[in-house]
Structure formats: C-alpha cells, structure tokens
Design brief:
The chain is α+β, with helices and mostly antiparallel strands and 496 residues long. It has three domains: 96 residues, no CATH class; 58 residues, 2-Layer Sandwich (Wheat Germ Agglutinin (Isolectin 2), domain 1); 211 residues, Aminopeptidase (3-Layer(aba) Sandwich). Helices cover 41% and strands 13% of the residues. Strands 5-6-7-8-10 form a five-stranded antiparallel β-sheet, with helices on both faces. Helix 11 crosses helix 13. It is found in: Nucleus.
Length: 496
C-alpha cells in the first residue's frame, strides 16, 4: 500500500492556506458583513497566488552565455563541456572536440568523476586535520599502500608505441595540426593519463566559474601566445598589457629590448634597427656563455616594466608591474653569435627590512628543467653571502618556485652535512655558512625527517641514505649548470 499523499493545500506567502469551497458555503447567508470579508480575503489570496514576484528569479540560460561568441576549435559548435556539467563552452580548455571527445562522452563520464572528486576532497580534509594534530611526519600505512599501488600501475605500462600506433598518431597530427590535442593513449601509464585528464577538467571548471563570476570575459583581453626570438610561447596567465595589444591574442617581442609589437612586420622592421644585443646595466658575472646583468629599475625604467609585464604572463602571484624604481633586477642570459638571450631573472628590493634576497623570480619556459632556475636561486644566495646577510625569498612563491626552492634547500643542506665532520651542529652555523634563513633550514630538515625531538633536545639526524642518493645524482648530473663564485665581479650597491 502506497504512502498517503499530503492533501494540505499550498501555502501562500502569508503562511495561510486558501479557504476551500465548503468553508465558504458553511457561512451564514444572513451575515452580509462576514460574507463580504471572506470574499475580499479570498480574492486577495488568489491574487497573491498568481503573483510570482516573491519567488526568486530563475537565471535564464541566455543570461549566462554570450551567443555571439564561438569556440575557436575548427568545426566545433560550442555545445557541451569537457566536465559534462555545462551546456556550452567558448574556450579550448572546455572544448570536448579539441580533446578528441564528444559532448555525450563527457556527460557520461561526469557523474563518476564528481563522485571521485568528492571522495578525494573528503580524504584531503582528513589528511590536513591529521597533519596538524600529529607531530610524526612519516607517511601513513594508507599512503604507503597507495604509493605501492601507483608504482605497480606505472610498471605495467607499455614500453612504447608500436608501428600502427605511431602511424595513427602521425596521421592525426597531420590532419588536425594544433587545432586538436595529440592522441595521448599508450604514451604514459593509465594512472598518469587519468591524473592529467582530471587536472584538465578541473582547470576548465575553474575557468568556467571565473567566467560566470565576470572575472574572465569571453573573447577576453588575454594574450594567448608571444613570439619571442626564435620561440613561440603559450602564455599561462593574464598580464595587464595595454588593451589595444592584449585584445590581439598574440604579441611579437624583441628578445633584447623587450619592446612589444602588434605584428611580424613591425617586429622585422624593429629588429633591423634595434642596436641592443644584451640587457642594459652592468655585467657582474660571466662564466662561459652565461652572464648576469644588474639592471637598476630607476635608471632603466621602461626595460624593467616590460620585463615585469613579460614575467606576469608566466607567474600567478606577481603584482608589481610599473613601480620598478625601488628594485634591482638581475637578468641571466645565454650568449651566442647573435647576442645575449634572456634565460631568466630575479628582482630584489634595494632596501628590504625583512632581508628578502628575492622579490620575484622567473625562468623563461623554453629554458625550464635545464638547471637554470637553481642557478638563479644560487646566485641570489651568493649575493647575500657577499653582503654578509641571511636571505629568504619573498612570499607567496608560485608553485614552480616553491618546488625549485625546496629542491635547492635540500641540496644545500645535504652538501653541508656531507662535508661536516663534527659531532654537534647548530642551525645558526648552517645559516651563516649558506646564507639560508634558519626558518627555511628547519622546514627543510623536517620535510626530510632529519629533525627529531628527543629528551628535551632537538637533534639533527645525518641520514646517510639521502646523502648517498644526492651524491649519485650529483655525479650523474655533473657541474655544467652551476654558479662559480670566483666569476662574480660585484660590490653591494650603497644603501643596501
């Protein structure tokens, strides 16, 4: 037998149920005043029932989408979304066709993805709570089992592509060029491919939220690519270039003076008469084909402003663009027979009350993962040693910056401990020797599980296994990308 239905009449905004027909008929016909009152009340309630102004306004479909915009992917009708949660898209990041999928496939995959993401968020919250409530930083049993599972999944993947797969991939690339994502199956393990797909979907969802919130507009003034020397670089973030340049989507830059232009023709004419072959300022370091120039933001204002605008295309947290006068810029270049090409740079305040030795640091994308980032960090600490100061980078660091600094601090500490022969060690001594801030040293020791509290004392454990791993990597890597302190010709500027 089914459950009894609730026959209670719907309530009006005043909270009362409209009177039924039988209620009115029971009224005494002799009482005219009572009949008039009931009729009036009934008419008011019926009018209120038809008045929908008190209800929350529903968002219409066309209010959240601009139908004048279209997805830039050739052949795409802008329907569907990579996450499966939206009816339309206007960017490559959310385009199913670009990712070699259909809108229906994205919708089918969406429910399972949402469930997994909810579980992952719950698990991460629990881990955060446990992390703050326990002193032990060792991995849990669950984390160890997960790591073993991932290792096993990666071990099972195919060693490479067979001939048919290679032909299929080449045919896909020749047919679609850069208008479609390359085929990614069998290139890596299924686990890593799924991680990559999750990251793609999450990024497109974040962009969709920003667009609906009005923080990113369709056809936004965001530069998609820049032509920089012999490279064409995809940008990562928005940079506040003038609107007439930003709306073009692509900028052409002189890699020596950093002047930005609207077209290839203007760039070609500029390069024919540009006399710059290296950054302005003083060359304070040279070893082989690597040089570092010190550029004063007050003396070379336009160059430094252009450098900051360029850096913002690849940095999320950067806020300095035009007020460059209080800063010094240290620009690293790689020289060949055409000139000194920009590798990366870092800036620092002329007078930092908190002893920050880096305000902003960037390695150009074409030089990433080649050791140049660590060279820039090492050079900043070399300047701190010459100044006889202890330095630390200004926060917040970007994701890539944090990874680079943690790797550098780990390397510095393991090198120091490998050469240390005494029995008692002091954090202060390590700091004075390496110019690394004691807070950064302690955090690195904790992450390496080399700092323990025992019988009322903090002990530094010399883990020989970590030192041996570091020595093996150093031997394999060699010293091709390192800073030579003897090649520095520099005295600290006055007032710093």
């Amino acid at each position: 037998m089914g459950a009894e239905r609730d026959e209670t009449p719907p309530r009006t905004p005043t909270g009362n149920a409209p009177s039924s027909e039988s209620d009115i008929e029971v009224s005494s016909p002799s009482n005219d005043l009572e009949d008039e009152r009931l009729a009036k009340e009934l008419s008011l309630k019926e009018a209120a029932a038809h008045d929908l102004s008190h209800r929350p306004k529903r968002r219409r479909f066309h209010e959240s989408y601009n139908f004048n915009m279209k997805c830039p992917t050739p052949g795409c009708n802008s329907l569907g979304h990579l996450t499966g949660r939206h009816e339309r898209h206007f960017s490559i990041s959310g385009c199913p066709l670009y990712h070699n999928l259909s809108a229906d496939e994205c919708k089918v995959h969406a429910p399972s993805t949402r469930d997994k993401q909810a579980e992952e968020r719950t698990l991460s919250h629990r881990q955060d709570e446990n992390r703050h409530s326990t002193r032990n930083q060792a991995p849990t049993e669950r984390q160890l089992r997960y790591r073993e599972k991932v290792t096993e999944l990666r071990r099972k993947r195919n060693s490479g592509l067979n001939k048919e797969q290679k032909e299929k991939y080449m045919e896909h690339r020749q047919s679609h060029g850069t208008s479609r994502e390359p085929l990614l199956e069998n290139i890596t393990s299924d686990y890593d491919l799924e991680l990559f797909r999750k990251a793609q979907a999450r990024a497109s969802e974040d962009l969709e939220k920003l667009r609906l919130a009005g923080q990113v507009s369709e056809g936004s003034n965001m530069i998609k690519t820049i032509v920089f020397g012999r490279y064409e670089l995809d940008t990562w973030y928005h940079s506040p270039y003038p609107e007439e340049y930003a709306r073009l989507g692509r900028l052409y830059m002189c890699e020596f003076c950093l002047k930005y232009m609207k077209s290839q023709t203007i760039l070609r004419r500029h390069m024919a008469k540009c006399v710059w072959k290296h950054p302005p300022g003083d060359e304070i370091y040279r070893k082989g084909n690597i040089s570092v120039f010190e550029v004063d933001g007050k003396k070379n204002k336009i160059y430094c402003q252009n450098l900051c605008l360029l850096a913002k295309l690849f940095l999320d947290h950067k806020t300095l663009y035009y007020d460059v006068e209080p800063f010094l810029f240290y620009v690293m270049t790689e020289a060949d027979n055409t000139g000194c090409h920009l590798v990366g740079y870092f800036s620092k305040e002329k007078n930092s009350f908190l002893n920050y030795n880096v305000s902003c640091i960037l390695t150009m994308p074409q030089y990433m993962r080649q050791g140049y980032g660590k060279m820039l960090i090492d050079f900043s600490y070399l300047l701190s040693k010459v100044e006889e100061k202890v330095g630390s980078p200004e926060r917040p660091l970007s994701d890539l910056g944090l990874i680079s600094y943690r790797s550098y601090w780990k390397e510095v500490l393991l090198r120091y401990l490998n050469n240390f022969q005494g029995k008692e060690i002091s954090i202060k001594e390590i700091s004075q020797e390496t110019a690394v801030n004691p807070v950064d040293i302690v955090s690195t020791l904790q992450s390496l599980q080399m700092l323990k509290y025992w019988k009322g004392k903090h002990l530094v454990l010399k883990r020989q296994d970590l030192i041996d791993d570091w020595k093996a990597k150093e031997t394999k890597r060699g010293n091709s990308k390192s800073i030579d302190p003897t090649a520095l010709k520099w005295t600290p500027p006055k007032g710093t």
